[in-house]
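Bug #77: duplicate submission created two jobs. Keeping one. Sequence:
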Amino acid sequence: MSELQKEKLAAANQWGILSGLALWGFLGEYLEHLGWFNLASWHYLPALLILTFFITFLLKKEYLPIRFGFAFGHFLGIWALHMLMITQFELLGKTHWLTYPSAIVIGIITLFSYIKIRKA
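Kept job's structure:
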């Protein structure tokens, strides 16, 4: 793979990340603000799990390009974290002791992901 192809692939992946963020901004924030649905509610957990497994299946079978994997992966990741935070806030309150271990777990996952990316 030439240097130009590597740069194009990296740019496509970065655009995928940005499009996943934009997808969340439209579906998760804008349509929620309009009152169409509350995507971050725990009632949408089955939809989140089904979409996660479906997108993972499509990526493993290579039916979707990697840039779409970046887009949907970031969309689903933001959705999952948003759902976790809002559910904890609504059910437990912001000062409940369980919010701290969950934040630590998310921090460890983030650190592990950062280390894996740096080694790649």
